[in-house]
Amino acid sequence: MERIFGIETEYGITLENEAHIDAVKQSIELVKSYRQEDFRPVWDYRGEDPFRDERGFRASSLSNHPDEKKEEEQDRKRNKERLSFAEIKSDHILANGARLYNDHAHPEYSTPECSSLFELVAHDKAGERILQRCAETRSEKLGKRVLLYKNNTDFHGHSYGCHDNYLMAREVPFETLKQGIMPFFITRQIFAGAGKLGIETEAGLATPGHYQLSQRSDFFHVEASVDTMHNRPIVNTRDEPHADASKYRRLHGIAGDANMSEYATALKVGTTVLVITLIEQRRIPERLTLVNPIDTIKTVSHDQTYRWMVMTAEGKTMSAIDHQREYLALAQKYLGEAVGFETDWVLTEWEETLNALEADPMSLTDRLDWVAKKWLLETFVEEEEIAWDDAWLQSLDLEYHNIDLDEGLYYGLPMRRVVTDEQIDAALHNPPADTRAYFRGRAVDRFSDSIKAIQWDSITFTVNGRTREINLNALADAEIAHQYNEALDQSPTVETLIEKLRL
Question: What does the pLDDT average to over 34-52?
Fold first, then answer.
């Protein structure tokens, strides 16, 4: 789709029949179980700066959840165990180009950089398989089952993220990006939401039994900021392009749910790719701006009438479906001539999904997570004759996101596929061939003993006692990525690779 993108997913973790666990410790041990050999930390954290803001300044601090003091006390106890920062993070760089690590209280899987929509879906699903294998290994050692959930809430006021990321032109002013993408994010949840039972605040579950579209919408409180853990923004301003900063910025989208549905993931990312292209072309009119975005993202998610009414800055009231149709019409007009199966698929499915949502949302039971989950819960309520605030239903909500292929409720439903099991199996071991993820993954697979440090945009090798850094920023260009990837394939040793790249 002529753009590089990826997905970061934090997983919920617990132990079977345990009401309370040390989630940080369990997350650390789970990630470590990926490999049996001793852990050797090589991830270079100097390439990360969560305080740098796209609006031209560096934040002095980040907002934390009210429970952070309790977590800091637990971390102080961990310090007594003499665990280093690197050991706590337990970063693994995988042969398929992905990153697997502990994000404080959650195992996180970051897909490799992809330029194919369906390849991204395969790598997202490969992440589920990798995490489940880790869970099985850890369960055997622990003597107790480790359970993992691809969701976004613990129903006690804590939310964890699924971030979709897109490389885009730096020349787009931030205000232009915000004006174009924020309204889209707000109404995108009508097809990208994962569904959730209850309305939640940081204090806990405020309204049990109320079914809504999105797991994340309750947790957004500002329009734009660099924060991700608390006082979350609809548009995140973290400035970490992981590419040439003079040419690119990375849209770090935190306003989306973790999707079990392959179809929903493809539609979520595919539509966003097209909207970003429209923003780069300055095609998004101001009339799509919505008033009261913080309230609107919640009211759209909470609305059980399926009308999902929003108000534009011009004072026009319209449905979220028609709001999405405005974006669709622009994409059809300006991007419809683009040659490519994936773009054609997105435009076709976007239109058909919006039409189905207007006619009968429940006709999308085989495609959209929030619809499939709602059907599942409605069926159970009818069969068991229980109320919607029954705790049994919250348990079913959670089990929809269980990534165990044999036990997860999602995997028992006849959901529409967009990738095959063979493609997912290939993604477990093979990086995308046309991005720098190939260089990273193959380098890790072949020359791991020579790698001193690694991050998203560089690899540092030790060669004959000297360190040699290969900067990967230029590999955002597909042609340069091809040259580097070809040089790696043709190099039997690191020395040969350095020579071929003339470093």
Answer: 85
Confidence (pLDDT) at 68:
63
Q: What is the pTM of this model?
A: 0.96
CA 151, CA 170: separation in Å to the nearest integer?
32
Task: Say how many C-beta atoms besides its own lie within 10 A of residue 247's C-beta.
Answer: 15
Would you give the DSSP letter of residue 272?
H
Query: pLDDT-based confidence at 87, cuts 50/70/90?
Result: confident
CATH 1.10.10 given to domain 5-426: no
Long-range contacts for 200-204 (Cβ within 8 Å, ≥24 apart)?
200/153, 200/155, 200/157, 200/159, 201/157, 202/65, 202/66, 202/157, 202/158, 202/230, 203/157, 204/155, 204/156, 204/157
Ranges in the chain annotated CATH 3.30.590: 5-426
In 3D, which of 202, 210, 247 has the Cα closest to residue 476?
247
How far is residue 148 from each of residues 20, 130, 291, measured CA to CA in Å? 15, 11, 38
**What is residue 323's predicted lDDT score, i.e. its pLDDT?**
98
Find tokens 């054609």 and name the residue: 344
**Which pLDDT does position 127 carry in this prediction?**
98
Q: Residue 76 is encoded by which pair of tokens?
A: 């102080």
Rounded to 5 degrees, φ, ψ at 13 are: -135, 140
Backbone phi, psi, residue 33, to 5°: -70, -5
Q: Is 66 exposed, middle or buried (0-12, 13-18, 19+ CB in 10 A)?
A: exposed
Reply yes or no on whether 103 is catalytic.
yes
Q: Can you tell me the distance from the alpha carbon of 465 to that of 459, in angstroms, rounded to the nearest whole number?
A: 16
Q: Are strands 220-225 and 232-236 parallel, antiparallel or unpaired?
A: parallel
CA distance 1 to 200: 36
pLDDT digits (tens, 9 = 90+) for 173-207: 999 999 999 999 999 999 999 999 999 988 888 89
Evaluate if residue 163 carries a pLDDT over 70.
yes
Per the structure block, which two tokens stand in for 27? 């997350």
Residue-wise pLDDT for 337-349, tens only, equals 877 999 999 999 9
For 68, phi then psi, to 5°, come to -60, -35
C-alpha span between 164 and 183 (Å, rounded): 16
Q: What is the pLDDT of residue 130?
A: 98
Catalytic member of 103, 124, 218, 457:
103
Q: What angle do CA 28, 30, 34 make, to 5 degrees?
A: 110
What whole-number distance in Å separates Cα of residue 466 and Cα of residue 183?
51
- pLDDT grade, residue 51 (50/70/90)? very high
Q: How many residues does the chain have?
A: 503
pLDDT higher than threshold 80 for residue 83:
no
Q: Is 287 helix (H, G, I), strand (E, B) or coil?
A: helix
